[in-house]
Amino acid sequence: MPHPLPDKVYSTAQIRTLDACLIAAGTPGIELMQSAADAVWLAITQRWPNAQRMSVLCGGGNNAGDGYLLALLAKLAGWQVQVFTLADPVTLRGDAATAHRRAQEQGVSMQPWDAQAELFGVIVDALLGTGLRGEVRAEYQQAIKAINAAVGPVVAVDLPSGLDADRGVVLGCAVVAELTVTFIALKLGLLTGVGPDYVGELEFAPLASSVQHAPAAAFERLSLDGWAGTLPPRKKAAHKGHFGHLLLVGGGHGMGGAIMLAAEAALHSGAGKISVATRAEYVGPLLSRCPELMVHAINDTEQLRPLLEQADAVVIGPGLGRDQWARSLLHAVLSWNGPRVLDADALNLIAEHDVLPRLGEDAVISPHPAEAARLLSSSNDEVQADRPAALQRLVTALGCAVILKGAGSLVASEDATLAAVCSDGNPGMAVGGMGDVLSGLLGALLAQRVPAAKAARYGVLVHALAGDAAAAKGEVGMRASDMFVPIRQYLNQREG
Predict the structure, then answer these.
(1) Residue 237 banded pLDDT, cuts 50, 70, 90
(2) Given Cys at both, which of 119, 144, 155, 316 links 55, Cβ 3.0 to 4.6 Å?
(3) Strand pairing of 294-297 and 363-365?
(4) Where are the domains of the chain?
């Protein structure tokens, strides 16, 4: 059985330290390399036991050493194996050179890479590892394109060649793998940005039982095992006041659906009382859809102020718009002192400020990359080029918990809590209204006195898991409202 994905995620620099710690503790480098090859071989034979043929492309580093030892395992098992070398084997050093020699001595077929070569069977990418800096060189790009054009299943050793292990961006071009077996520790680039599109199925092989004197992780991978007890069981004598009064503000002209989705998500997420401040035209539809809500037609801040005074937490942004009505309501919420969730047009309006406001540790924002770019006076491409850096810039600028949405959503805050990445979720969630559902869920958690930094992490995890549950019938055609029932189910789960 594959190892479960660990809950700690490391940078490439930290992984080099982990590797050195393993060797210093007495595990020879060639033994680690053999363990890596063993792990990939096991993964391949479990998935394609009858393939009987393998093409391995090897570069010039330790990643190549893994490839040579893997090729040897396949040959000893009776498979037809061919190895293509992109680096002259005489340039190999250390453990990689040892691995090459072992394979050569056992008669593994090796030849320099040729663009006209025919790749057959299971195709193994052992070209470039975590040490890649800058764009992939031309000769390696040629080999990567050949791998991507081949017919057989593609397996990446440690990570797909050409993928930045820290940022989840493509360095010129990258291997599109069906399976990636990664070693020693999880790399952030496998989980966020465009990384998941290149990784395929992700399998983890620790190569050692434990590491002494390991460095602190860079990120936490969110998992239900660590977060299932966030909301404690309710006491029998509880009443609605114990679970907070949430106020949602939004629903400008033509955008009533957003505030409806956020409000209904909050209902399924456990807030004791829920009020909605919106345009008069949405009062009837909201009450018809959810009679549990207290819905108020709001024309100005004077009407909003008494609702703010009663609230324990506020969500503003879903369907808010950017007109004067929206601006005045946002100003009132920014002046209010309490836990807040700001999303969508609330963030777009804030981005227009000459100086971004310090929202404080009890606030959560949840921008998608385009909204993050506006807040940072940057571009969508620049945000996606370094999502961890953009995340930290937002935390520093606004002083609150930040959720940078997208594939592999990232979460960080100014407290000591480790930054987090969410590896759950699916493309079916890429539809309108999903962000509104997340806002309602986050607001309900804040109303239930979950601290903002914790609510941001737990909310992102529950939202992603609910999305995966909703995708059980297929990703195409999912609706944001499909999330309500599984959100409730996960919030009531006490064990991972």
Answers:
(1) very high
(2) 119
(3) unpaired
(4) 8-216, 224-491
Lowest mean pLDDT among 210-219, 387-396, 462-471: 210-219
* Three-state secondary structure call for residue 449: coil
Fold of 224-491: UDP-N-acetylmuramoyl-L-alanine:D-glutamate ligase (3.40.1190)
Task: Tell me what the mean pLDDT of segment 59-85 comes to.
Answer: 97
Residue 172: CA count within 13 A, CB half-sphere: 16
Per the CB < 8 A criterion, the answer to whether 34 and 237 are in contact is no
The model's confidence at residue 52, banded by pLDDT at 50, 70 and 90, is very high
How would you classify the pairing of strands 201-205 and 186-187?
A: unpaired
Cα 24 to Cα 18, 291, 318: the distances in Å are 10, 65, 54
The Cα 375–Cα 352 span in angstroms is: 8
Rg, Å, the chain Cα set: 26
CB contact at 8 A, 378 and 351: no
**Angle 94-105/29-47 helices, nearest 10 degrees?**
60
Structure tokens at 341: 């969730």
Residue pair 314/338 in contact by the 8 Å Cβ criterion: yes
Render the burial of 175-204: b for 16+ CB within 10 Å, e for the rest: bbbbbbbbbbbbbbbbbbbbbbbbbbebbb
Place of tokens 């990120």: 219
Residue 66 corresponds to which tokens in the numbers above?
A: 């893994």
Q: Could you tell me the pLDDT band of residue 430, with boundaries at 50, 70 and 90?
A: very high
Instruction: Give Cα 150 to chain centroid, integer Å.
Output: 29
- CATH architecture assignment, domain 8-216: 3-Layer(aba) Sandwich (3.40)
User: How many Cα atoms within 13 Å fall on the side-chain side of residue 130?
Assistant: 22
Helices of type H across 342-432: 345-351, 369-375, 380-385, 387-398
Predicted pLDDT at 169: 96
| Tally of CA atoms within 13 A in the half-sphere of 455 that contains its CB | 28
The angle that helices 434-447 and 256-267 make with each other, rounded to 10 degrees, is 40
Measured in residues, the chain has a length of: 496
Q: How many CA atoms lie within 13 A of 187 on its CB side?
A: 32
Mean pLDDT, range 214-242, rounded to an integer = 92
- Between the two ends of the chain, the Cα-to-Cα distance in Å is 19
Q: What is the DSSP letter of 26?
A: T
Alpha helix (H) residue ranges in 77-219 = 94-105, 138-149, 195-199
What are the strands of the beta sheet with 179-183, ordered from one edge?
110-112, 80-85, 53-58, 122-126, 154-157, 179-183, 201-205
pLDDT of 212: 67
Q: How many Cβ atoms from other residues are within 10 Å of residue 425's Cβ?
A: 24
Q: Is 182 helix (H, G, I), strand (E, B) or coil?
A: strand
Determine the angle formed by the axes of helices 324-335 and 301-310, rounding to 10 degrees.
30
* 3-class state of residue 312 by DSSP: coil
Amino acid at position 111, single letter: Q
